[in-house]
Design brief:
The structure holds 2 protein chains of 2 kinds. By secondary structure, chain A is of the alpha+beta class. Chain A folds into 3 domains: 114 residues, Butyryl-Coa Dehydrogenase, subunit A, domain 1 (Orthogonal Bundle); 107 residues, Butyryl-CoA Dehydrogenase, subunit A, domain 2, CATH 2.40.110.10; 127 residues, Butyryl-CoA Dehydrogenase, subunit A, domain 3 (Up-down Bundle). Chain A is 47% helix and 14% strand. Chain A has a 4-stranded mixed beta sheet with strand order 1-4-5-8. In chain A, helix 10 packs across helix 12. The longest helix of chain A is centred in the C-terminal third of the chain and has 29 residues. In chain B, helix 7 runs antiparallel to helix 8, helix 7 runs antiparallel to helix 10 and helix 9 runs antiparallel to helix 10. In chain B, the strands form 3 sheets. In chain B, strands 1-3-4-7 form a 4-stranded mixed beta sheet. In chain B, strands 2-6-5 form a 3-stranded antiparallel beta sheet, with no helix packed on it. In chain B, strands 8-9 form a two-stranded antiparallel sheet. Chain B has 12 helices and 9 strands. Chain B is of the alpha+beta class. In chain B, a hairpin with a 5-residue loop joins strand 5 and strand 6. Chain B folds into 2 domains: 167 residues, Butyryl-Coa Dehydrogenase, subunit A, domain 1 (Orthogonal Bundle); 170 residues, Up-down Bundle (Butyryl-CoA Dehydrogenase, subunit A, domain 3), CATH 1.20.140. Classes of the chains: A alpha+beta, B alpha+beta. At the A-B interface, helix 8, helix 9, helix 10 and helix 12 of A face helix 4, helix 7, helix 8, helix 9 and helix 11 of B. Flavin-adenine dinucleotide binds next to strand 1 and helix 12 of chain A. The site of flavin-adenine dinucleotide (FAD) has 17 residues of chain A, from strand 1 and helix 12. Chain A: One of its GO terms (cellular component) is plasma membrane. Chain A: This is Acyl-CoA dehydrogenase. Chain A: It comes from Seohaeicola zhoushanensis.
Chain lengths: 382, 349
């Protein structure tokens, strides 16, 4: 009847306890005016926030203790993540490391990589970039041309990545590079590397986005050395690995909560006595959000059971980014307010931020079209 | 839930599925469409004990877990079952009586009118909600003027001809949410319709996927065209969203906070219905626009059900007013509370 079911995940007591502590932490941050909720989310890079969060024990919590974690469940991590997002906190610095790079190293990294890197991520001190896209390899990721050649004691990487979020701030990137022939499947001969951004032979050039922010970058590699123990998995396993990494990247509540504070602002801008149009439209957005949150808890449950919910994550990401993009469209029709980054007030600012960011929601982490094609394969059409 | 209870539920689900798959044939759906009540099929449904699925064992029911009981209503809807199974299940549970004859729910207007009651002319008993409270009324005490919904299911305007009726207490978990007995029963009906819509959406997508794989144009199956693939991906997403949010609502049965869960489910179900119906009809094209093809049994029900017990617009407004009155900061905790799964075994009811 329904190919992909999202059975509800019951949150264990530990997860609910974590909700209490993260809420207390965030309330204190807001009280101390350390961030402005309406401007911030996982694209705001604030290492101070990440360090305080790490010190309070909210990063890398699912990893084993020996690597700086707490062996907590995926559901506990889910709760912390959703609270951080809903609060509109500036969580961008550590986000990628906690969400995908750390888990990738834990699964596929060498002992040294795990010991040296994971505890630092968990402390909120070590940040990562995603080295997948290239000028000629966007949706068609298997077309990457950055090459790694075997050299004494390691590998030498040459080539170019693009759209690398935070490359100018981060300590490491996980780079997908070609180490052999593509083969008939086009997926052979790829390998992932943990690249230290301090290594000679790396040049980062910023690219300003349409909102004027410098978040993503071009990254050039010229004979950049990576030691053998910074290879993830085995040589040639890169495609399977990168697919797994993307599953981490797509599976979380960041795919529908990045502009949650705009909804909060909208409700407050409308006030306690909405007219019918306002009530209907807000009610509808809330109902959509309810279905997304429910599906997202379900995915956290699947991750907790060790499943790889690739298609379910694609479903939630596509629905979620659609919701995020619809939100400013609804908001601007309900409140007479020109979006503005100036001093017109928090709602105008939140609206402006979101309008200018919204086009990226259905691009990063795999475009809407690519996700829909994955879902189509999942229901047996391809 | 113990293992034995789970096994029992699995057996009931399997038997029900077999009954629906075998007995709800094209011919019988066609016959019921604007035609008489299928008494024979009701007898079979009754013999399986399905009307008592939601009633606790201690009250003479079979006491399935909520997900399992509403799962039966979903399954029935996926087959377009032409009977008031869900309504009867609910009346038995709300009145704590193991009555297996067809029963239904009626919401009174301010002037006392009882419009558009599902199977109002076939039900032996009607649970009526008006401003004063709930009453269980016998068929003999109402007069009926029959109408049909878009799917040809009976929807009758009832008039009470006698004052008799057994008064039924609105359970605490409902009166905690709303002091309107009518709104309380409307929410109950909204849950039922959203669960049914989820089943029908799943069915509609299944039919469209099948059609896309079988029908060939330009020398290949429709399913090979990316435009078609993406439409079906969207339909799958929408259906999945309604399954998820209606699960959350079904779980809320028996607990305070139920009305919001039901409201969100009905709202999302109404939204998805328009989107999915457009897609599945586009893919079936002319064939799906005929009376001959089976698709309309599902889509006409969807078009009717999304209006019943409050349209999505009605519930959207209800949610919106509450959310705005509470203010932006109150939304997040509310959202968490109304979408988090309750542990089975902790089932109330
Ligand atoms: C804000 C932002 C941050 C990003 N951060 C990172 C990062 O940190 N690291 C990183 O590696 N990448 C990053 N990206 C890149 C992102 O992953 C790519 O933009 C994305 O994969 C799409 O690639 P592209 O932009 O080259 O578009 P293209 O692949 O050229 O696609 C263009 C259009 O064609 C469509 N299309 C392509 N192929 C198909 C097909 N087979 N069927 C149907 N339609 C198709 C696409 O959906 C899209 O609409 C970021 C992007 C953005 C916007």
């Amino acid at each position: 009847m329904q190919q992909f079911e999202f059975t509800g995940a019951v949150l264990p007591p530990a997860a609910e306890a974590a909700r209490g502590s993260i809420r207390a932490f965030l309330a204190e941050e807001v009280a101390a005016a350390r961030f402005q909720p309406h401007r911030c989310t996982w694209s705001s890079f604030d290492s101070g926030f990440s360090q305080r969060l790490g010190a309070a024990g909210f990063i890398g919590i699912t990893w084993p203790e020996e690597y700086g974690g707490q062996s907590a469940s995926s559901l506990t991590r889910f709760v912390i993540t959703e609270e951080i997002l809903a609060a509109g906190s500036p969580c961008g610095a550590h986000w990628i490391a906690d969400r995908q790079s750390g888990p990738q190293i834990l699964r596929h990294g060498s002992e040294r990589a795990k010991r040296e890197i994971l505890p630092r991520i968990a402390r909120g001190e070590c940040y990562f970039g995603i080295g997948m896209s290239e000028p000629g390899a966007g949706s068609d990721l298997a077309a990457v041309r950055t090459r790694a050649e075997k050299v004494e004691g390691g590998w030498s990487i040459s080539g170019q990545k693009i759209w690398t979020t935070n490359a100018h701030h981060v300590h490491y990137m996980i780079v997908l590079a070609r180490t052999g022939e593509r083969g008939e499947s086009r997926h052979e001969g790829l390998t992932q590397f943990v690249v230290d951004m301090q290594t000679p032979g790396i040049e980062v050039r910023g690219i300003r986005d349409m909102a004027g922010n410098h978040e993503f970058n071009e990254v050039f590699f010229d004979n950049c050395f990576v030691p053998d123990d910074m290879v993830l998995g085995a040589e040639g396993d890169g495609w399977a690995l990168v697919t797994g990494e993307l599953a981490f990247e797509r599976s979380g509540p960041d795919r529908f909560l990045s502009d949650y504070q705009l909804l909060v602002g909208l409700i407050d801008a409308v006030g306690p006595a909405p007219d019918r149009l306002q009530a209907v439209e807000i009610g509808r957005m809330v109902a959509e959000l309810a279905s997304l949150r429910r599906m997202s808890t379900s995915i956290a449950g699947m991750l907790g059971r060790g499943e790889q919910p690739v298609v379910p994550a694609a479903i939630v990401k596509d629905l979620g980014t659609g919701f995020e993009q619809a939100l400013p469209e609804v908001a601007r029709r309900l409140v007479d307010c020109e979006p503005s980054l100036g001093a017109e007030g928090p709602f105008a600012e939140a609206l402006a931020e979101t309008v200018l960011r919204a086009p990226s929601f259905s691009l990063r982490g795999g475009t809407r079209e690519i996700l829909r094609s994955m879902i189509a394969r999942g229901i047996g059409l391809r | 839930m113990t293992d034995t209870q789970n096994e029992m539920a699995a057996i009931v689900a399997e038997q029900a599925e077999r009954l629906f798959a075998g007995a709800v044939s094209r011919e019988r759906l066609e016959a019921a469409d604007g035609g008489p009540f299928d008494t024979q099929l009701w007898t079979e449904v009754q013999q399986m004990g399905l009307p008592l699925a939601l009633l606790a064992e201690t009250e003479g029911g079979i006491g399935l877990a909520l997900g399992q009981a509403f799962g039966l209503a979903r399954r029935a809807a996926a087959h377009a079952l032409q009977l008031p199974l869900g309504e009867t299940m609910i009346v038995a549970a709300l009145t704590s009586t193991p009555a297996e004859a067809p029963a239904t729910l009626a919401l009174a207007k301010d002037d006392g009118a009882l419009p558009s009651v599902a199977w109002g002319g076939d039900a032996a008993q009607v649970l009526v909600a008006d401003a004063q409270g709930w009453q269980l009324v016998d068929a003999a005490d109402v007069s009926t003027s029959e109408r049909r919904n878009l799917a040809g299911e009976p929807r009758c305007d009832l008039t009470r001809v006698a004052e008799q009726g057994r008064s039924v207490a609105v359970p605490d978990w409902l009166s905690a949410d709303t002091d309107s007995p009518v709104e309380a029963l409307r929410a109950v009906g909204a849950l039922l319709r959203s669960v049914q819509i989820s089943g029908a959406l799943g069915r509609a997508v299944e039919l469209a996927v099948r059609h896309a794989t079988e029908r060939q144009q330009f020398g290949r199956p429709l399913s090979k065209f990316q435009a078609i693939q993406h439409m079906l991906a969207v339909a799958t997403e929408e259906s999945a969203a309604v399954w998820a949010v209606s699960d959350a609502a079904a779980e809320g049965w028996g607990r305070p906070g139920f009305v919001l869960r039901a409201a969100m489910a009905k709202s999302r179900a109404g939204l998805a219905t328009g989107r999915v119906a457009a897609i599945v009809h586009q893919i079936h094209a002319a064939m799906g626009f005929t009376r001959e093809h089976e698709l309309h049994f599902t889509t006409r029900r969807l078009f009717s059900w999304r209006e019943e017990f409050g349209s999505d617009a009605l519930w959207d407004e209800w949610i919106g007013r509450r959310v705005c009155a509470a203010g932006g900061a109150a939304l997040w905790p509310q959202l968490v509370a109304s979408t988090t799964a309750h542990a089975t075994g902790e089932d109330a009811a």
